[in-house]
Amino acid sequence: MTGDSEDPNAQPAGDEPAAGLTDDQRRTKLLKTVAALGGTVTPRRDPMAKHGHAFSGLEEGIEADLSFLARGDYLDERFFDRVTICTRCDSHHLNIREVCPACGSTHYTEEPLLHHFRCGFVGRITEFDPGDGTGRRICPKCTVQLKYLGTDYDRLGKTYLCIDCGTSFQDAPVRSVCLSCETEADADDLATAEVIGYAITSLGTAAIRRGSLFEGDSEVLYIAGAAVYRPAIMFELLEYEAKRIQRFKGTFSLMMVEAKGQEGAAVPEDAEANMITRLRERLRGTDIVGKVSEHVFIACMPQTAIAGAEIVRSRFAEEQADRRIMLETTVVEIAGPDDLAQLLTRIRAATRSKSIGK
Prior knowledge:
alpha+beta, Alpha-Beta Plaits, single chain, 26% helix, 18 strands, four-stranded antiparallel beta sheet, 7 helices, 3 domains, Arc Repressor Mutant, subunit A
């Protein structure tokens, strides 16, 4: 043994970079690479890469294809980290520091701040130095010597003294300067970018078996022969329904279903297919089902109050007989776009919070 740690995202042997391939072939090849890397690709920190992160085992500049595959539900996004970036050039190479509030200089000193109990004077520690080289501390206001910390005086933290303009201050503003384009900005005004990892989905696995993407049917998946809308299309349909019922003064209900493997095991494809079949059997022909994340589905039931949706949910949950999976089901009533926006924000945050380990 050499003692070297093996990179979990190392490029598989014999897998040369794609060249002269169509977009479909290149992206299918990328899916195969992700599968060969264990089904997930995790960002690693790289100061020279965009936003300070790159993917081991993948070609440079592959982020656009990864995003494309995630939008098509071939890959599932996994939140990894958040990076502060320049508002002008998008660079993560920032120098963030405290500055003088008067002149903006970074040329300052830090000194402890002392409070003399007897006369109430507060000042920098150098103001209590009589300059005679004795090391005594004499209050410049009442000329009494400070001897005992906690009895004669106390420390109140620290203060700053600007060397350039002489301003004394306690609360130093935080500003950044971009080392790439020299843009300066207040720290509160800086932008951030999410760093995302990816995990292959069941659709991605099916595309690998098929040898190509399912571009001919970009809106609908078919699970056990049942139509299931992809995330982007499902969200659009829900937003349209929310606007419609607000205009016509109605409501609709959503049932969310998440399948999980027992004791952390993977969800078998046939078990998920059987679950979708049973779900469709409980719904009306006007109800639609969409996939919002890997193993997470939403059933939209127009013109259905939450009481009716709860009956459907309860009966569906009671019919669960496949012991290989566990189902988590909830229902919620939507009365307009605001209700839906709040729900979708929570769903997106929950599905993306399944962080890949750093």
